Amino acid sequence: MDGVKVIDHPLVQHKLTIMRDRETSTASFRRLLREISTLLCYEVTRDLELTEVEIETPLQPMKAPILVGKKLVFASILRAGNGLLEGMLDLVPAARVAHIGIYRDHETLQPVEYYFKAPQDLSDRLTIVVDPMLATANSSIAAVTKLKERGARDIRFVCLLAAPEGIANFTAAHPDVPVFTAAIDDHLNEKGYIVPGLGDAGDRMYGTK
Ligand code: PRP
Ligand code: URA
């Protein structure tokens, strides 16, 4: 699929299987999401630009590679996005963070926005939007639209599970935003849940229902 990269690393797939299991505890679910997110982070940042700096090792001077440009931004779609955010920050601790409060109405499946806080200068930074679930894509489309309104131009979207319907909707709305996902599942059910999926990611992360 154009603009979509499936990260089929064996460790990602193994951990994802445990997360899908209904018997997996809240504590394990959270830990696995954090672990997987470091692996997803590795892939989504694979092509970041480098420059060279002069340093001195204990043995001799050398030119060594270092990331160039402004610190990148991770934009977490609350709540469940925070599960991916933590592992991303483990790998890129100097990143800036945007929080986007959106939940989807259970009846209409339309996004309800309740919070937005982001760094001012989004136009100069790569923005990586994180949310474990891309179902209808209504939430992620709204989040990316908001980030673009606030100036973001270079955006990537990372999730754990995507539905084919959600990918089609998302890429139609934001064809310039590549999607990175650990798996593309079979379909959405009549309630907008990803099947086979893993259930409600936020509820499983935080033990709510
Ligand atoms: C979940 C998930 C996404 C959204 C995906 O959040 O984390 O944000 O649903 O569904 P969509 O693609 O159909 O919009 P939810 O609305 O359950 O909020 P929560 O993270 O606060 O639990
Ligand atoms: N949000 C979730 O948390 N899970 C789904 O399957 C769909 C939307």
From TrEMBL:
InterPro entries noted in UniProt: PRTase-like, PRTase_dom, Upp_B, UPRT, UPRTase/APRTase
Short name of one Pfam family: UPRTase
Obligatory cofactor(s): Mg(2+)
Pathway where this protein functions: Pyrimidine metabolism; UMP biosynthesis via salvage pathway; UMP from uracil: step 1/1
Domain Phosphoribosyltransferase intervals: 6-208
Catalysed transformations (reactions): UMP + diphosphate = 5-phospho-alpha-D-ribose 1-diphosphate + uracil
Binding site for 5-phospho-alpha-D-ribose 1-diphosphate: 79, 104, 131-139, 200
EC numbers on record: 2.4.2.9
Classification via CDD domains: PRTases_typeI
Activity modulation: Allosterically activated by GTP.
Record-linked PANTHER family: ADENINE PHOSPHORIBOSYLTRANSFERASE, URACIL PHOSPHORIBOSYLTRANSFERASE, CHLOROPLASTIC
Function: Catalyzes the conversion of uracil and 5-phospho-alpha-D-ribose 1-diphosphate (PRPP) to UMP and diphosphate.
Family: Belongs to the UPRTase family.
Protein name: Uracil phosphoribosyltransferase
Gene: upp
